[in-house]
Amino acid sequence: MTSMDKKIAVIVLLLAVLMGVGVLYWRYVTPSGQQATILVDNRPVETVVLDPAVGMRQVVVQGVRGESVIEIAGAYIRIIASACPDKLCIKMGRKSRPGEVIVCLPNRVVIRIDGNEQ
């Protein structure tokens, strides 16, 4: 390895460490969203508070194709059951950050996390 190769390796390593620190900061330090808006067919159906002090609860909304079951667990929200064929909305997992969305296109259900995006 030449001297230039070592310098490039150190620069790449430093960039990887900085990117990792940035991801960890975004994941664990930035605040969670304050509330989530549930929309069906582009119309607001319900607004739920995302609060770590509040326990788990479920909300059932009637979409275009059938029911979608939404779970609110503290500061996180996710879809746990839906009438859509592919279940991609369930695979999107739980969300809590402002600006994140969960979308079920066949059932026309959208969950939008409201708050200040950072």
Descriptive account of the structure:
The chain is built from two helices and seven strands, in the order αβββββαββ. A hairpin with a 4-residue loop joins β6 and β7. Helix content is 25%, strand content 37%. The protein has a four-stranded antiparallel beta sheet with strand order 2-1-7-6, with no helix packed on it. A three-stranded antiparallel beta sheet has the order 3-4-5, with no helix packed on it. It is of the alpha+beta class and 118 residues long. It folds into two domains: 30 residues; 80 residues, mini-chromosome maintenance (MCM) complex, domain 2.
Could you list some keywords that capture this structure?
118 residues; four-stranded antiparallel sheet; mini-chromosome maintenance (MCM) complex, domain 2
CATH homolog superfamily of the largest domain: N-utilization substance G protein NusG, insert domain
Derived from helix and strand composition plus strand pairing, the structural class reads alpha+beta
| CATH architectural category of the largest domain | Sandwich
Question: How far apart are the termini?
Answer: 42 Å
User: Which parts are unreliable, with pLDDT below 50 for 5 consecutive residues or more?
Assistant: none
Give me the CATH fold name of the largest domain.
Answer: mini-chromosome maintenance (MCM) complex, domain 2
